[in-house]
Fold FAHD2 protein.
Amino acid sequence: EVDWEVELAAVIGKTGRHIPESAALEHIVGFTVANDVSARDWQMQRNGRQWLLGKTFDTFCPLGPAIVTKDSVTDVHDLRIRCSVNGRLMQSSSTNQLIFKLPQLVAWVSQFVTLRPGDVLLTGTPPGVGVFRKPPVFLK
């Protein structure tokens, strides 16, 4: 039950740990788009409903095709984000709908791990993933 999740991805450009929200954007070099591919059967039924395994199969989480530098983005919380599957629009939203804003996300993650250049943080997906459609729709 392979599903899609379009997400804004922030690319880390500066090492940091315990980063305050006020300095979080200084650690980002740019942005790209990610498909946080998820095996819903592995997330919701197998392996004790442990979510991580359903997102870690080979070829999951394609990124790109390009990184947009931070200085070329006027407002990271006002970007369109969309996902089409076989030409059909499945997700369409804006980063202004993110539950956790990017500085909050960077600060939170950096409490637990040291962020290093090249690390990628995914920010969350808007409505429209396949598992919650009636009936559910999955990639083939």
Observations:
- The chain has a mean pLDDT of 95.
- DSSP finds two helices and eight strands in the chain.
- The chain has one domain: 2-122.
